[in-house]
């Protein structure tokens, strides 16, 4: 069984270890324009020794935005900003995918072009929270706005927005893209049997509900080749308000199988607190294994907090091939080195998850040895 420190080949992309950096929104992009720059370049370059860096969620269009100061990947200025990031990461010997994001109904009119309602598969409001930023810089958690249902005729335009973002990602020098189909954002909303009751070709049956994801994956594949595309799912997770539905498990099995036909870079499974309650135990014992078997390619596991031994145990147990660490990657820029040498792990400061500058972002030191 592989060790976290063993190298892994993601369909041609050679990664020196299986300790990946999970996608982490940090809300420090420049406004107006949602543009990354030197601050982000320094941050990701500090973490170049991770087997793979998956960037913070990055909106594919202005409509895809739900939080303040999250970066985009659709304008020339954003591409130029991201180019600083990818050049620094590559110069430091690293590899980086960008996470392509559309929040769907988890948004607020304050973030939407011309104050329009956010879009969703159906016109049903999320009970999840979003964040807005006031003129004085203060961030506030607020209820998501009432969305409008996407029209059938708009779906090709939506897919083209993803395709455009993937082309921008290629131009910005990323090694690949991760399609964000987790955490109750737009693609997850379409997958959901509890929410997506549309009566056109994009909703209702499982086949219809996964149509958007497959189109997005194929569009991204046109820019990068399918080996440059990963997908993140949160099976049976319910962050941001997507009620559990009786066919969630079958949907996840079918999605894994359909993605497996495409020979993607990886399938990334985020699960909260692995194995700690009935649902999670069930997931670990059955669904995760079934999804891995149907996908047939590299599986990245995530959701361990500080439980590094548990993560290694799940690799030993054949649940996956690599592990993405989120909060530990925030506070340990040299996490692979620390784990290899048994150095103490630094705690993170959650009051600094979101901010404006390098504090709590680029000032976590490497281990002193
Ligand atoms: C500050 C913060 C920002 C996050 N941003 C994202 C994100 O942009 N995209 C995403 O898919 N998950 C995001 N997550 C979830 C993490 O990727 C990860 O799934 C979660 O932190 C659990 O992993 P961990 O236990 O290793 O931290 C975020 C989590 C945190 C704490």
Short description:
The protein has 369 residues and is an alpha/beta fold. It has helices at residues 38-46, 76-91, 155-171, 186-191, 206-209, 211-224, 248-260, 278-295, 308-316, 327-331, 335-341; strands at 8-10, 13-15, 19-21, 53-59, 96-101, 119-120, 129-133, 139-143, 148-149, 176-180, 229-233, 266-270, 299-302, 322-325.
Write up this protein.
The protein has 369 residues and is an alpha/beta fold. The longest helix is centred in the last third of the chain and has 18 residues, at 278-295. The protein has a single domain (8-352), classed as TIM Barrel. It starts with 7 loop residues before the first strand and ends in a 28-residue tail after the last helix. The protein contains eleven helices and 14 strands. The chain has an eight-stranded parallel β-sheet. Strands 1-2 form a two-stranded antiparallel sheet. The protein has a two-stranded parallel ribbon with strand order 6-9. It has helices at 38-46, 76-91, 155-171, 186-191, 206-209, 211-224, 248-260, 278-295, 308-316, 327-331, 335-341, and strands at 8-10, 13-15, 19-21, 53-59, 96-101, 119-120, 129-133, 139-143, 148-149, 176-180, 229-233, 266-270, 299-302, 322-325. Helix 9 (308-316) links the parallel strand 13 (299-302) and strand 14 (322-325). The structure holds flavin mononucleotide (FMN). The site of flavin mononucleotide has 21 residues, from strand 4 and helix 10.
């Amino acid at each position: 069984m592989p060790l976290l420190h063993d190298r892994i080949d993601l369909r041609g992309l050679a990664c020196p270890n299986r300790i990946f950096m999970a996608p982490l929104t940090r809300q420090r992009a420049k406004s107006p324009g949602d543009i990354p720059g030197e601050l982000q370049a320094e941050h990701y370059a500090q973490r170049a020794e991770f087997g793979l860096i998956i960037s913070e969620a990055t909106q594919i269009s202005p409509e895809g935005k739900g939080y303040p100061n999250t970066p985009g990947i659709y304008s020339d200025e954003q591409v130029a900003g991201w180019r600083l990031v990818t050049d620094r990461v590559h110069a430091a010997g690293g590899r980086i995918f960008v996470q392509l994001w559309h929040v769907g109904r988890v948004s607020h009119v304050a973030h939407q072009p011309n104050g329009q309602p956010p879009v969703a598969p159906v016109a049903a409001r999320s009970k999840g929270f979003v964040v807005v930023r006031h003129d004085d810089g203060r961030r506030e958690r607020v209820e998501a706005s009432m969305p409008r249902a996407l029209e059938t005729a708009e779906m090709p335009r939506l897919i083209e927005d993803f395709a455009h973002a993937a082309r921008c990602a290629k131009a910005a020098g990323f090694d690949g893209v991760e399609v964000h189909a987790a955490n109750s954002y737009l693609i997850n909303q379409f997958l959901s049997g509890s929410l997506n009751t549309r009566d056109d070709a994009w909703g209702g049956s499982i086949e219809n509900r996964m149509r958007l994801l497959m189109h997005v994956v194929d569009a991204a594949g046109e820019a990068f080749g399918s080996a440059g595309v990963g997908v993140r799912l949160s099976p049976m997770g319910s962050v941001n308000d997507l009620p559990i539905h009786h066919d969630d498990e079958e949907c996840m099995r079918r999605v894994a199988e359909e993605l497996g036909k495409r020979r993607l870079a990886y399938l990334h499974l985020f699960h909260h607190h692995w194995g700690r309650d009935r649902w999670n135990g069930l997931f670990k014992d059955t669904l995760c294994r079934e999804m891995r078997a149907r996908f047939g390619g590299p599986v990245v596991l995530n959701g361990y907090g500080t439980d590094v031994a548990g993560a290694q145990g799940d690799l030993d147990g054949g649940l996956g091939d690599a592990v993405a660490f989120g909060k530990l990657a925030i506070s340990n820029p040299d996490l692979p080195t620390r784990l290899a040498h048994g150095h103490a792990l630094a705690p993170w400061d959650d009051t600094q998850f979101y901010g404006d500058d390098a504090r709590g972002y680029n000032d976590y030191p490497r281990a002193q040895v």
